[in-house]
Specification:
Belongs to the acetolactate synthase small subunit family. By secondary structure, the chain is an alpha+beta fold. It is 26% helix and 35% strand. The longest helix is centred in the first third of the chain and has 12 residues. Strands 5, 6, 7, 8 and 9 form a 5-stranded antiparallel sheet that branches. The protein is elongated.
């Protein structure tokens, strides 16, 4: 039986109209389930980084990567299953409180190193940052008190730099990507050579 689990992908894309629509449509047409999606700017102007958590077996993920690589908008795909990575997620949780539960709710929040971002007479809103396990555990701890609202940003991830200190055969065949830039930046002289003279 094929194992279905979550896979974490980082996709570097060009900042162009409808890029997000084209990529999510590709997943939708093939029945891939996107569990989480976040988008943000990168260190390179004109390039954004999408982090997608897709559910499926390994074959499904490899097929999705091959399809994504055909898109003009996609600059590079990083499959985080190939090496160790660090990931984080942010969540806002609004919890109902009473005079009796206020102290206990605050104590639990402190144990999770969360931050209070809004205070009301009948509710507290917390900001929590961490990996998926920590976020889920915090929500479950607060559930008995009454969760009024939650909003999760979705996971973001980077390959661990420490992978460069580990033999490459431990995770996959080939050289580690840990200390390689996500994009090869063209030297300024080369860029200038390719810019047309408008005058």
């Amino acid at each position: 039986m094929t194992e279905t689990r979550d896979h974490l992908l980082s996709i570097l894309v060009r900042d162009e109209p409808r890029v997000l629509t084209r990529i999510t449509a590709l997943f939708g047409r093939r029945g891939y389930n996107i569990r989480s999606l976040s988008v943000g700017s990168t260190e390179h102007p004109g390039v954004s980084r999408m982090t997608i958590v897709v559910s499926g077996d390994r074959g499904v993920v490899e097929q999705a990567i091959r399809q994504l690589e055909k898109l003009h908008d996609v600059v590079r795909i990083i499959d985080h299953s190939l090496e160790k990575y660090v990931d984080r997620e942010l969540v806002l949780v609004k919890v109902a409180i009473t005079p009796e539960s206020r102290v206990e709710v605050r104590q639990i929040a402190e144990d999770f190193r969360s931050r209070i971002v809004d205070v009301g007479r009948h509710a507290l809103t917390f900001e929590v940052t961490g990996d998926e396990g920590k976020i889920t555990a915090f929500i479950e701890q607060m559930r008995p008190f009454g969760i009024l609202e939650t909003m999760r940003t979705g996971r973001i991830a980077l390959t661990r730099g420490s992978n460069a200190d580990i033999p490459t055969h431990v995770y996959h065949e080939g050289e580690t990507q840990a200390l390689q830039p996500t994009l090869e930046v063209e030297p300024r002289e080369e860029r200038a050579r390719h810019v047309p003279n408008l005058f």
